[in-house]
């Protein structure tokens, strides 16, 4: 692979995640300062949507940090960062609804979510051991170790790819719930979508980077066999 190709490759690996992260932060910062029309906190939005869908057993908890919001299926809990838990902003409402979207997916046994959960053990193994095997295979010039590393990495990449439909589906559910519950008005839909789409970019960027890494090592493996 030519030097210029390597430079372009590493530039993409660096720029894509930074661009996605910057876009998320900029969008979140902008709409975290704009109050939603219902003046509901993120916690109230989450509770309303959960109750509207009969998910009374799902808890809502505050968690420290910035944009640390997530849904924990193990204990059926939506966790919202302090600013979104107490905030009345459009960003807080959008993110709260998105995390509740995951709770609804869980309750409905959404196929991609179940598949992602099933991939967690092998994806963790892939993340932890793939590079070790690949480096060992490269140093020892062992195609078997190198291939094993690629296979482990492939599971981690598959996890990233399966995450995409899970996240996009959660955002679609969030929009539907926010509108049908009356939390936002029609003139707020565009801004809410911007928050949800910006957040989705981080997952797209992660998937692109993971795919490029996998492709690079596959090409290296092909080169080792040709030699």
Automatic annotation (TrEMBL):
Annotated InterPro entries: Zn_peptidase_2
TM region(s), chain numbering: 6-24, 118-139, 145-166, 195-222
Superkingdom, natural source: Bacteria
Pfam families linked: Zn_peptidase_2
UniProt keyword terms in alphabetical order: Membrane, Transmembrane, Transmembrane helix
Protein name, entry field: Zn-dependent protease
Organism: Salirhabdus euzebyi
Source lineage: Bacteria, Bacillati, Bacillota, Bacilli, Bacillales
